[in-house]
Amino acid sequence: MRELPPLSALRAFLAACQSDSFSEAAEKLNVTHGVISKQVQVAESWFGVTLFERKGARRVATPYALTLAQELTLALEGVSDVAARHRFGGVNHPLRISVPASFCLYWLMPRIAQFYQQYPDINLRIDSAVSSEQESTGRYDLVIRRQPDATSQIKPFFCDSNALLASPDFISRHPVSVPQDVLSVPCIETLTRPHSWAKWCEAAGIRHVPRSSVHRFDHFYVTAEAIKAGLGLGIGPVNLLQNSLQKGEIEIVFPDIITDAYCYYALTPVGVQKTVAHRAFESWLFSTGNAAG
Predict the structure, then answer these.
(1) CB neighbours of 209 closer than 8 A, spacing ≥ 6?
(2) Which of 46, 172, 196, 269 could form a Cys-Cys staple with 235, CB 3.0–4.6 A?
(3) Is 37 found in the same domain as 181?
(4) Could you tell me which residue ranges the HTH lysR-type domain spans (predicted)?
(5) CB-count burial class (<10 Å; 0-12, 13-18, 19+) for 256
């Protein structure tokens, strides 16, 4: 690591730049005027330039000093943020997590109380992301996605597959006995999962996908609620909707036809250092995900 200027000199220099006088800077840091003056001299010696010029009885920061102060402030704020996130192992700082909206609603929320019971001192900040928002990972400490990311440290923790789903009420009104019957009953399509029906029909040996009486929704969590409401047949993840299946809100139609095996991954963006809180949440994800999936 390259040599750094003394932190005490930087603090005095920044306080002086942000004050009308060295005396005011001294009050801010609870030191004497002489300490500020001496530490500013140390900073000037280290940087090799004059940072303050005399104007009458006052010493005023030069344009160079003001530019330097602006950059140093940003750098030290970054150091402060890192220190705060890692203090006490990071348990007191919010762990910033991005989760797909459907996964958040149907898997994470029904189980998150278990995590807090196990780790009551860890603070999570969970942001749900729809499909169009899932490209961004830079603001987060941990990201959950269906696709692995080559720029992140990746670990799969939960696997799933798709099946044909319907509510018991819908099946009672629209009985289907063979896969071909799906072409003559109302169906539901998710626009962000455009190939789900084609893959299911291919696995079922059907040459065409449903075209008539098709309800279309933008995101799967809307589709899932439409399926539960009895609006039509829909393609959806079996493990993700396990709670709804166990409650009898939905059921699998033709259970032997399963498509699209895939996994969810816990991604740690490059450059993120794992804190105690990070490792605890990641460990909980793997133990809970493996148990459920």
Answers:
(1) 197, 198, 201
(2) 196
(3) no
(4) 5-62
(5) exposed
Rounded Cα distance between 94 and 181, Å, is 50
Cβ atoms of 252 and 238 within 8 Å: the answer is yes
> What is the CA angle 174-166-239, rounded to 5?
160
Instruction: Report yes or no: 14 and 73 within 8 Å, Cβ to Cβ.
Output: yes
Q: Does the structure show a pLDDT above 70 at 226?
A: yes
Residue 293 resides in a domain? no
What is the residue range of 75's domain?
A: 7-86
Among the three residues 86, 104, 133, which one is the final residue of a domain in this structure? 86
Alpha carbon distances (Å) from 47 to 19, 26, 50, 59, 72 = 21, 22, 8, 18, 13
Q: Which of 227, 272, 263, 231 is nearest to 245 (CA)?
A: 227
Residues with Cβ within 8 Å of residue 80, at least 6 apart in sequence:
none
Q: What is the pLDDT of residue 131?
A: 64
As beta bridge partners, residue 187 has 214, 233
pLDDT band of 236, cuts 50, 70, 90: very high
Which residues, at least 6 apart from 206, have a Cβ–Cβ distance to it below 8 Å?
179, 180, 182, 183
What's the chain's average pLDDT?
88
Is the domain of 153 the same as that of 269?
Answer: yes
| Full-model pTM | 0.66
62 in the same domain as 40: yes
Q: How far is it, in rounded angstroms, from Cα 265 to Cα 134?
A: 13
In a domain, 1, yes or no: no
